Amino acid sequence: MNTFLLIFIGLPALEIFFMIKIGGKIGALNTVSLIFLTAIVGVFFARIQGIQTLRSGLINLYQNKAPIYELMSGATIAFASLLLIVPGFFTDLIGFLLLIPFTRKIIFKIFINKNSLESKDEKTNKTIDGEIVNRDKDEL
Asked: Among candidates 4, 15, 9, which has minimal Cα distance to 91?
């Protein structure tokens, strides 16, 4: 099944399920208030993490280092703040996990190791691709 379609249908269904369950326990008004509170707190923490990432990136630039981790962190923080703005408890949980630097590093290591394993499969191939160039001049 198409992954986008699964996310497009499954994620809102999961969010509605959690809202109904939590709303049944704490009440509708408290649930709506909690959704707004998590959005506000999440965007505040995303701003703080974004500023820290920007400072770290500038320090790396001053030291003539490539700020690769900071670029990845910045994109992840932007995605996390988007998840925190979207109403729902599951997206808020994922957003808060992406805002924590420790869990961000774990996620990056998982993706980097996954990509490096795929590139190792390409390196084990012993085929060498090349081109033969004939340097001899034709004499007529």
From this structure: 15
Among 29-38, 82-91, 117-126, the least confident range: 117-126
Give the span between the Cα atoms of 85 and 79, in whole angstroms.
10
- For residues 53 and 104, the answer to whether their CB atoms sit within 8 Å is no
Q: What is the pTM of this model?
A: 0.73
- CA 51/CA 103 separation, integer angstroms: 18
The residue behind tokens 């959704």 is 35
Q: What's the rounded Cα separation, in Å, for the pair 54 and 67?
A: 10
Q: Is the pLDDT of residue 40 over 60?
A: yes
Cα separation, 49 vs 42, whole angstroms: 10
Half-sphere exposure of 71 (CA within 13 A, CB side): 6
Q: Which residues contact 18 (CB under 8 A, 6 or more apart)?
A: 88, 89, 90
Amino acid identity of residue 58, one-letter, is L
Average pLDDT, the chain: 85
- What's the average model confidence in pLDDT over 52-70? 89
List the Cα angle 103/105/107 in 5-degree steps: 70
